[in-house]
Amino acid sequence: MCHTRRTDSDLLRVGRDAQGAWQVGRGSGRGVWLCGVGECLKQLGVHHLARALKGEVHGSDLEVVQELLVSFNR
How far apart are CA 62 and CA 26, in angstroms? Predict the structure, then answer.
């Protein structure tokens, strides 16, 4: 994670809805703001998501988030 300061428009928010489905974009509840490109996406780990969401996250969740970010950036 690069920790580079960016404006909201340069970042993507990833979070879970009330049913537990992952979504990209603004929403209610806790979320993770990511630049979602290059090395930052490669460095994203389960522990980053768990800490930001203050909850349990599994490896499969990380795969879903990475797929969402890659497809959103196309």
Answer: 19
From CA 31, how far away is CA 12, in angstroms rounded? 10
Two tokens, residue 62: 């990380």
pLDDT, one tens digit per residue, over 29-53 is 888 888 866 777 788 899 989 998 8
Of 10, 5, 7, give the one whose Cα is nearest residue 37. 10
This prediction has a pTM of 0.76
Strands (E), the chain: 12-16, 22-24, 31-34
Q: Which of 1, 7, 19 is closest to 69 using CA atoms?
A: 1
Long-range contacts for 42-46 (Cβ within 8 Å, ≥24 apart)?
Answer: 43/1, 44/1
Cα–Cα distance for residue pair 69/35, rounded to 1 Å = 9
